[in-house]
Amino acid sequence: TLENHRPVGLANLAPDRHGALELALLVADRWRRRGIGTALLRHAMAEPGNASLPVQAAVQTHNTAVLGLLHSLPVPPRLADSVPGEYYFELRPAVAAGTPAPIGPLSAAG
Questions:
Q1: Which of the ends of the chain has fewer CB neighbours closer than 10 A, N or C?
Q2: Digit-coded pLDDT (tens) for 16-33
Q3: SS3 for 89?
Q4: Which residues contact residue 76 at a Cβ distance below 8 angstroms, ignoring those fewer than 6 apart?
Q5: Which positions ≥6 away from 71 have C-beta within 8 Å?
Q6: Of residues 101, 25, 16, 107, the one with CA closest to residue 67
């Protein structure tokens, strides 16, 4: 997703040493709460090489937007662990079931 030829969001799934994927998700402040993070996550997880692998995500306990995003997925994440200030979730591959959300340029809002 682009604004003035610059990305407004990024999803990265990087393999860890245990065969799972670690999720990094970033959406520019003024573009948050528009479904971009959800679309990026679903698209990344639906890629053929990623669709069968477990995905792990570390989320700060105060990050209500990402917590809401994870709990809105068709298959809720599993809380794998927690430490003060941070949750560790496992997202199951079934989250990617169905058609990935389209990714493309968005026009800047007013």
A1: C
A2: 888 889 999 999 988 888
A3: strand
A4: 70
A5: 77
A6: 25
Q: With contact defined as beta carbons under 8 Å apart, do 47 and 28 qualify?
A: no
Nearest CA among 92, 26, 88 for reference residue 55: 92
Hey, CA dihedral for 69, 76, 99, 48, is it positive or negative?
positive
Tokens of 107: 């026009």
Angle at which helices 36-46 and 64-71 cross, to 10°: 50
Report pLDDT for 1: 55
CA dist., res. 2 & res. 52, Å (int): 28
